[in-house]
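Q: Could you write out the predicted structure for this multi-component system? I'm mainly interested in how the pieces pack against one another.
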Amino acid sequence: MNLEKHSEHLIGKAHVGNQQAINELFSLWYERVYNMAWKYFGEEEVAMDVCQQTFVTVHRKLHHLEDASKFKYWLYRTVINQCHMESRKRKTLHQAQEKFIQRQFQPVQEQPDEIYHRTERSKVVLAALQQLPEEQRTIILMKEYEDLTFREIAETLGISEGTAKSRLYYGLKNLRNILLNNRITKEYNYE
Amino acid sequence: MNEQLIDYLYGEMTTTQRADFEAQLANNPTLKAELSELQFTRRLLSDVQQVRPSNTTVTIRATPTIPMSWIKWMAVAASLIAFVWGTQPRIQFQNTGAVIVSGITTWQMMSKYFSVLQLRIAPR
């Protein structure tokens, strides 16, 4: 049974008050929800807070979900909404930008080989993601890491497929410019 | 053209659309360069790996079924009762014998209203 079918089965049980089914449902999606929030904010603590809030919201509103096959979209929409709320609350974008600027000015000479190590690049890419407008960042996370189709993204966010593609296009272009400013270039990394 | 680039980049084209687009790429160095840049950005994004979160506990508090304003007044009333009676336990005589009654009883009743559910979640 695939993830979505299994979820539908569990939601059916949850609707009749089976707490164990809710527990299992949350466990199934926990890693995805956490990763979405972690990549959105680049901070583990905030990601965990978003997870908690997402599951509390899902628990409270699950009985309103009439079509269990839509759970995936509904859950992603909930996570994204929580991320947006958290972002406004904590002004994380501003903090992340400060961190990013600090990283830019770290002396590269101290660890010339390691600085381009995958883990380091990962940190820089995460920080760069925080600099993107929310709407572009959201689409990049959904497409790159959650592997949703454009139709699924459009349904989740309530936008057209064309808008989703356009946001992704400009998101990738902006991300590249940010990364270039941070000296992540083809010459240094891949070629 | 932007939409086509994105469709090609993420493999969301039919075989025919793909062949047409590749023909355009072959004759358009600017388009090819732009595609290359987008592919490079995607490779950088792939450096950010999926992480496995630690187990967590989600605490869910019961949703009040009556307005919060009522609950506040009930809390005030319960506090007064606790203050007046709780500090001075009384003895009531019932069929089964003597029972000590205090304001604590009131608090126990209120705490049931604010019940808490804890879900322990581990990643699968």
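A: Regarding packing and overall arrangement: Chain A touches chain B through 46 residues (CB under 8 Å).
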